[in-house]
Amino acid sequence: RRGRRKTTKTQDNKGRGKKSGRAVSKKEKEERHLCTFFSSGSSSSSSADSDEESLSEGEIAALKEQVEEKKKLIATLRNKPWRMKKRLLLLKEAQDFVEKFEGALGKGKGRRLYAFKVMMTKKLIKFNRDFENFKTACIPWERKIKEVESHFGSSVASYFLFLRWMYGLNLVLFGFMFGLVVIPEVLMGLPYGSIPRKTVPRDEEDSAMDFSVLLDFGGYCKYSVLFYGFYNNDRSIGVLQFKLPLSYLLTSVGIFGYSLLVVIRTMARNANEGGDGGDEGEFIFSWKMFTSWDYLIGNPETADNKYASITTSFKESIVDEQENQKDENIHLRRFLRVFANFLILCSLGGSGYLIYFVVKRSQDFAKMDPKTLTWFENNEVEFVMSLLGLVCPPLFETIAELEDYHPRIALKWQLGRIFALFLGNLYTFLFALFDEVNGKLETEKSIKNATEWALHEYYANYSSFYNTTNVPPPNVAPADVIRGPCWETAVGREFVKLTVSDVQVTFLTILVGDFLRAFIVRFLNYCWCWDLEAGFPSYGEFDISGNVLGLVFNQGMIWMGAFYAPGLVGINVLRLLTSMYYQSWAVMACNVPHERVFKASRSNNFYMGMLLLVLFLSLLPVVYSMMTLSPSFDCGPFSGQEKMYDVVIDTIQAMPAFIGNIFTYVSNPGLIMPAILLMILAIYYLNTVSKAYQQANTDLKKKMQMARDDEKNRRNNQDSTNQVMKDLEDLLPNKSLAPPPVAEEKPLGTTKPGTAGKGVEVQKEESLSAPNPRRPVTRAPGPRGGPPGNMRSPQPEAGRGRGQGR
């Protein structure tokens, strides 16, 4: 019996190998040996040494290959199209395998050294992960922005992200201006009261510390480091011989250069990150189905609003085609749209004229006694500009109802009109301001001529009276010296007052328009005639577009005014800092989520594009001042120069001769024009290459689409062909063209593996090859029949007799 059972087991093993259809390879034997070896895991050193000796080079190579495969699986597991349960299971198995076998790729001390390296690598990875978490925790206002994002969605949070980005930009600009202009003047320049430009005039000393005067940035504020006129025109100051005029000019230009670099770099990074690979006009419902949800929402009310918004967007997409096919009075629609644009153009023209009028009126007020003017007359320009920024956008929105555009198109028109409003108001303000500057320049010329004539008479009379050529300077106190109007400081004061008034109006609007409104709705809703929460006034929504546009144009004023008021950048840093806390509190306490919550796009360069345009338009007035207007003769670092850029020419002339020759050659128009032409050609070439790449991407998308369509058609045709063949087989009498397989005789003693001794029969092995047509001969051959028939037709089946096998 033992021998028979041993024979049976041997036959079972042979049958099992035959059933698998392949032999065990040498590599698999090595892997089994490795798994068996490392799973045993002896703890003693002697067994470890013997195990090391038992590993061959092929086994170590196989182990390394398996470890690398497991590592690659861990790295690419998230890209696999598997279920999460399968991913987690495979991840755990791969991590356990790597943890178990990674340190065994050496021998003796080499193994321990490798295990130490692996441990240090894991420690380094953990340190890097913790350090990244620490850096994330150090990002300013990250938790506050995430809280806003969870309640209002990523669209509202995008404004606060943009605000934080602007804060970082202005912090760097403040570092440039404060470190290269303000600090050197404070530490190495002349102290306050030493020269007339740093002293309050005698007739202004009595009211120099009044709160109303300081609030208007007059008095001691006017004669401080906050404005252009305070800085001295000495070529070098202090022990370090710091060239302050050159630093002032280069820092002012460098602010624009750095801002331009940062804005373009941010736009390029957003464009690279935001490519989703899909066209807006294709697969509309697929994109909406799979990409509409905002996974950063953590508030139930916001989630309900987002759900309703997605539902509405689906309904709009379904109804869009029906709306396009509706019969409507196209002539009436065109008339209403032309009429609406005419009203908006009239509003823009009226706002520009109003600003020009109040600026001209402020010039008349400047010639009057300040004590006779009221607060409104002193701040009329800033008040009117802020009021127009509050009134005109809602007016544009009301007029836009006549156009009956789609909401997305209406939003773009609204943003464009607000942009045109702010831009027109700003440049109207600048034109009126430069008219005032031209008047101040005429006044300065007359004062300069009178001062030079008085000094000439003083020196002539002194030398003739005392009969000497050594004439001392006139003994006049700095506060009593007659001065010019210093038009740079006047322009800087206007920009500072405009920025501060914009902050005041914005904060007051939030306090009255949002907080007071929410307070009334919250506490008076129970005793009112109608539902205040559902009807008028209801809770307010956060105006994303208006706030972002206001932020963009405020930054434009900072770029323009930083040249005339170096302290304006510091004021803007404080403004952005307080705005972050104040507006985040207001949006969490007073606003409700939008009825239609939009998901913010990663590639949204619309605001960055407007910021770039505003940066370019802000550069024009500053360049015009540097290149065209004459600086004031008695204030600022460029006093005594014909033009402001003469400081650079004087600095180059003071350098060694060969350096001056280099700058002369570089500034030669014959060299500049070819360089500009070369830049234009390079831009044209890069643009052409970019268009070629875009066309190649489009063609590749079309080819992929065609390949996918061909694959779908091939699969559909194959399925239909298989179905036809099945139908044809069902129509045949025997349902098959091949003869039926003949069962072979079961060998004696063959049992199912693992069931020895229980008498369980083993089923016959199925083979993919054609059955053997030969059968055992059990009778004599019969007489020859007729001619053979069609061999392709099904032959009659042989009858089953007693001699036939089962």
UniProtKB/TrEMBL annotation:
Q: Which residues cross the membrane?
A: 173-192, 213-231, 246-264, 338-359, 414-434, 557-578, 606-624, 662-686
Disordered: annotated segments = 1-52, 704-723, 733-806
**Compositionally biased residues, Basic and acidic residues:** 25-34, 704-717
Compositional bias, Low complexity, is annotated for: 39-48
InterPro entries cross-referenced by the UniProt entry: TMC, TMC_dom
According to its record, how does it sit in the membrane?
A: Multi-pass membrane protein
Q: Where in the cell is it found?
A: Membrane
Keyword Transmembrane helix assigned = yes
Highest taxon above the source species: Eukaryota
Report one GO cellular component. plasma membrane
Molecular function GO terms recorded: mechanosensitive monoatomic ion channel activity
Record has Transmembrane helix as a keyword: yes
Which residue ranges does the record assign to the TMC domain? 486-601
Per UniProt, the keywords (alphabetical) are:
Membrane, Transmembrane, Transmembrane helix
**What GO terms in the biological process aspect are recorded for it?**
detection of mechanical stimulus involved in sensory perception of sound; vestibular reflex
What family is this? Belongs to the TMC family.
Task: State what protein this is by name.
Answer: Transmembrane channel-like protein
Source species, please? Poecilia reticulata (Guppy)
Organism placement in taxonomy: Eukaryota, Metazoa, Chordata, Craniata, Vertebrata
